[in-house]
Each structure stands twice: as C-alpha cells, then as structure tokens.
C-alpha cells in the first residue's frame, strides 16, 4: 500500500532530483536508440520526442519509459529499428501510411511533417497511420505544426491493448487513447491540449506506485464504482481506470476514447481494442500494444483566410486576462505551463529523480555510452 501525499497532475519530481542538460539528455537517448539500430537522424528525432515528457511536464511519458517500454519493444522485435514506412494511398491532402513497426516516437513526427507539407498545398493535410508503435506524448508531435503557423491534431489508439472497460462493462475494451491539439497563439505560448481520454494514463498510475504516492479520487475505481486511491491496486487487478468526466460524465470520456479509436485506428485499418478477442478477457488489462493507429492532421488557417494569427493572439490574450477568482492562481490554458517549464528547463537543466538517473547510468554502462553528466558536478 502506498502512502504519503497526493500529487497534482504534472507534479515536479521529488526533492533530491538531479538536473541534467537537455542537450546531454537527448544526445544520450539518441545514442541508446542508435545502439539499438536506428539511423542517427531517426534516433535523434525519437530522443527529442521521448525527452519532451521530462522537459515540458508529462514525465509519466518521458525517459521513465525508455527501459520500461521502448527498449523491450525493440529487443522483442515488436518495433523494427530499420522499418521503412510504406505509403499505401496518396490522395494529396490525405495519405495512408503503413509504419511497418517503426518506432512511433519517430514515425509520428514524420507523419506530422508530411501532414504540414500537404496542408501547405491544400489547407489541410491528413496522414492516417497503421502498423505503428507507441508515440509517447501525442502533444510533442502536434506541436510540430505550430512551428509552421498551423493547427496540429494527433490521436493514437493503443493497438490491441485493452486497458479500460466501457461503462457498465465487465472486460476491458479500449486503450487510454491519447488526443492532442496544438495551435499557434501569436506572441503567447501555443495552445497544447495533450491528454489521455481515460481520467489518467497508466503511466501516471505506475509512476505514483513507484514513488509511493496515493492518487487523488477520480482516477481509479473498484468493481462497484467506489473510488480507489492506492495506485498498486491497478496492477493488482483491484481497481480500474475511470473515464474522463467522472462517474456522471463518463460517457463523454468513453465517447472521446471511441472517437479516437474510430479516427486513429478504424480509418487506417490498425489493430482495434473492441474486437471479439476482447470478450474472453478476465476483466483486467489484456492484449498487446502492437499495430497501433494514429490520426495525424495539420490545418493551415492562413491558407483559408487572412487574419487568423491576429485573432489567435486576441483569443488567448483574452483568456490570460480573465480575472481570476483567486489572485494566487491566474487563469492559464493548456500548454502555457508546458511552454514556460520547457524554457526554464532548457536553461537550467531537466530534473530527474535519483532512481531514474541511476537507471540511465546503468543503461550507459551496458551500452558503452557516457551517462549524461549531472549539472554542477565535475565532467
Ligand atoms: N501514447 C500513448 O498511448 C499515451 C496514452 C495516454 C497518454 N499519453 C500521453 O500522456 C501524457 C499525459 O497525459 P495526461 O492525461 O496525464 O495529461 P494531464 O492530465 O497531465 O494534462 C491534460 C491536459 O490538461 C492541461 N492542464 C493540466 N493542468 C493544467 C493547469 N493547471 N492549467 C492549464 N492546463 C492544465 C495540460 O496542459 C494538458 O493539456 C500526454 O502527453 C499524453 O499524450 C500517451
């Protein structure tokens, strides 16, 4: 049973974390991916996507997943480091891509770059992807569109991995199906909505379990729907993930999860969570996150009309100027904190908890790479 205090979303690491330079960290992660056979440019892109979690905030989907998720995927042959994605259909504004087991961290960014290029020509670009593996933080890939003044949309199902039960259902059917939208906001930080469609991703539950925190109510519940705050109960099969919207609004979260399943997986023909195979499940998580599907889209407002940039600046500026009910907590929109946190960490280093840093040091020893140095320590 875990103890100690609740953690808010995107909480900073505990006291005692070390700080590591962002460039050193991404160079190290790129070295690890290259050691596993990725071409250097792909390894570097995958590393930037991975480290985004630690840089900007959703650290449940950052470097902690290197040894837990991505290296096992590569070592078991479920991700192919040399995969050459294949274009199945190309209609100009819409493309269907078979990722052929490429690392999702890299291929989702490739897909967004292609969507941006098509949106530059057609006003909208859609790259529908199947045969992919885990993409990490959906928002990292969505943000690439913002660099081109466009709105980016990224959603992913979890292949055939089933983690969440439909409301009233006794077996798991869907993944945590992340959804992200990023948009330019003029001189303000970009809007970046980046979230699981369940109340929390499994990464956040397991992170709390590793760190010995209890969870706030509203993320897990037992078979009867009663709240569960012990994160260990999830992997012990005594608790299930709740949908966004809580008990009363759960059909909204469930509906969003299904929306992602349709757009990201049904459209490209990727592995589906809801499938007759799911019916034999024992009520807990089942299936594997192979053959994941993505929806990757870019929309170019400037291609459709003039003045969208000015309007965006006004929209997000008005939100920031909204009078707060509590002066200690000014009104912010999704992406604001991530932008400022990333800026601060680029300058002052990325905090990593001591156990995670020790894990990286051990990995460095095994791969013959140099562990990224702790800032302030002798090099
Ligand atoms: N690849 C996968 O299969 C998968 C599955 C699930 C989640 N994920 C990733 O996990 C990460 C974390 O997801 P999550 O659901 O825990 O996100 P979260 O709950 O930490 O945040 C969700 C959204 O709320 C916003 N937000 C939170 N607190 C805020 C505040 N105080 N002010 C303004 N905005 C605020 C954030 O900016 C974010 O857009 C995401 O990057 C997501 O893409 C990936």
TrEMBL record:
Q: Which domain of life is it from?
A: Bacteria
Q: Which SUPFAM superfamilies match?
A: L-sulfolactate dehydrogenase-like
- One Pfam entry for this protein is Ldh_2
Quote one Gene Ontology molecular function term.
Answer: oxidoreductase activity
Which keywords annotate this record? Answer: Oxidoreductase
Q: Which family does it belong to?
A: Belongs to the LDH2/MDH2 oxidoreductase family.
Instruction: From the Swiss-Prot or TrEMBL record, give the protein name.
Output: Lactate dehydrogenase
Q: Which organism is it from?
A: Nocardiopsis sinuspersici
Upper classification of the source organism reads: Bacteria, Bacillati, Actinomycetota, Actinomycetes, Streptosporangiales
């Amino acid at each position: 049973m875990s103890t100690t205090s609740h953690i808010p979303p995107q909480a900073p690491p505990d006291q005692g974390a070390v700080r590591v330079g962002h460039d050193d960290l991404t160079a190290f992660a790129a070295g690890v991916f290259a050691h596993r056979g990725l071409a250097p440019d792909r390894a570097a892109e995958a590393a930037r996507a991975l480290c985004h979690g630690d840089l900007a905030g959703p650290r449940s989907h950052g470097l902690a997943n290197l040894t837990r998720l991505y290296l096992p995927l590569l070592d078991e042959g479920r991700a192919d480091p040399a995969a050459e994605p294949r274009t199945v259909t190309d209609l100009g504004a819409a493309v269907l891509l078979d990722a052929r087991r490429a690392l999702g961290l890299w291929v989702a960014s490739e897909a967004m770059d292609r969507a941006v290029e098509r949106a530059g020509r057609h006003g909208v670009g859609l790259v529908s992807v199947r045969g992919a593996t885990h993409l990490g933080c959906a928002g990292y890939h969505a943000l690439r569109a913002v660099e081109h003044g466009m709105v980016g949309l990224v959603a992913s199902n979890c292949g055939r991995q089933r983690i969440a039960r439909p409301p009233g259902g006794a077996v798991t059917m869907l993944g945590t199906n992340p959804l992200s939208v990023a948009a330019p906001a003029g001189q303000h930080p970009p809007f970046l909505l980046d979230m699981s469609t369940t109340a929390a991703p499994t990464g956040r539950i397991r992170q709390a379990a590793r760190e010995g925190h209890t969870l706030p109510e509203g993320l897990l519940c037992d078979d009867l729907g009663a709240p569960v705050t012990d994160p260990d109960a999830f992997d012990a099969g005594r608790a299930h993930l709740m949908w966004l919207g809580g008990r009363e609004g759960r059909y909204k979260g469930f509906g969003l999860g299904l929306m992602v399943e349709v757009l990201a997986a049904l459209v490209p023909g990727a592995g589906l969570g809801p499938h007759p195979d799911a019916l034999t499940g024992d009520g807990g998580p089942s299936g594997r996150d192979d053959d994941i599907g993505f929806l990757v889209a870019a929309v170019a407002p400037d291609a459709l009309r003039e003045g969208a940039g000015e309007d965006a600046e006004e929209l997000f500026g008005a939100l920031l100027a909204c009078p707060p009910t509590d002066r200690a907590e000014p009104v912010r929109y999704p992406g604001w904190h991530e932008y400022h946190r990333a800026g601060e960490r680029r300058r002052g280093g990325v905090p990593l908890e001591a156990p995670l840093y020790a894990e990286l040091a051990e990995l460095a020893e095994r791969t013959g790479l140099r562990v990224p140095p702790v800032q302030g320590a002798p090099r």
